[in-house]
Design a protein that fits this description.
With 243 residues, this protein is mainly alpha-helical. 42% of the residues lie in helices and 2% in strands. It has 10 helices and 2 strands; from the N terminus they run E-E-H-H-H-H-H-H-H-H-H-H. Strands 1-2 form a two-stranded antiparallel sheet. Helix 5 packs across helix 6. The longest helix has 21 residues. The chain is globular and about 45 Å long.
Length: 243
């Protein structure tokens, strides 16, 4: 969520809480005022953390459109293998790093285009390799900085998220539903997806003020405002099904 995580949770893995700072490549959001009527466990790979001083370079030019990213062969291959839409994987890449292959920041192991922390990446890439024996996959930590390889792990995390939300009663999870799962973690994904638009987001995620600020959330941000901000970033794709 593999983004620069604040609190980190992956199914079967311990929670990790880390100090936060703005995530490389992630735009600073301005939340709309008011409470939108509708829209489309603790931190996941998408939570922002660490400090300054990221390293690495992008394999794609910056500021690609979602359609351009979704058309990339490595995005298409990973999404197809995991059974999710290419748009869902492309949207995650854009939200996490603007699809730039950045190295870890101070205080966090999150890295790559999908900003996965090491423990989550290793768990997901091994699961993907087991489920897809016909695909050559690097299951070592070195593979995290290969965008194509990390895309497999991120796609697996999203596929697990779809199953998790379906189990919680959300028959067709949308991309904005999956953003909550990816950004805030498996333990909170369903709670955010099922929350009314008017609910205060902080009451669900329980972040520190520093973590809230680093992830573009204020103490008054509602779930609906958070959803709308993501929709403003990736367009109508936010409310399309993730599979």
């Amino acid at each position: 969520m593999f983004a620069d995580p604040g609190p980190q949770m992956q199914t079967g893995l311990p929670v990790q809480v880390q100090p936060t700072a703005p995530e490389p490549g992630l735009p600073q959001f301005t939340y709309p005022s008011g409470n939108p009527d509708s829209a489309g466990g603790s931190g996941g790979p998408g939570m922002t953390a660490g400090g300054s001083g990221s390293s690495g370079g992008g394999t794609l030019p910056p500021n690609q459109t979602l359609e351009q990213v979704a058309a990339q062969s490595y995005i298409q291959a990973a999404a197809e293998a995991a059974g999710i839409s290419a748009d869902a994987l492309a949207a995650t890449c854009l939200a996490e790093s603007n699809c730039q292959n950045v190295g870890p920041s101070s205080g966090s192991s999150a890295s790559g285009e999908f900003q996965m922390i090491d423990s989550t990446y290793l768990a997901m890439i091994k699961q993907f390799a087991q489920d897809n024996p016909g695909i050559a996959v690097d299951t070592s930590l070195a593979g995290e900085m290969d965008p194509a390889n990390e895309a497999y792990a991120a796609a697996q995390y999203l596929a697990d998220g779809v199953q998790s939300l379906q189990t919680a009663g959300i028959a067709d999870p949308t991309n904005v539903d999956m953003r909550g799962y990816y950004q805030f973690g498996a333990g909170l994904g369903a709670q955010i997806a099922l929350a009314p638009a008017s609910q205060n987001l902080e009451s669900i995620v329980n972040l520190t003020p520093a973590q809230m600020a680093a992830n573009g959330i204020t103490s008054t941000t509602t779930v609906g405002q958070w959803r709308q901000t993501y929709a403003n970033q990736i367009g109508s794709t936010a409310y399309q099904a993730a599979i």
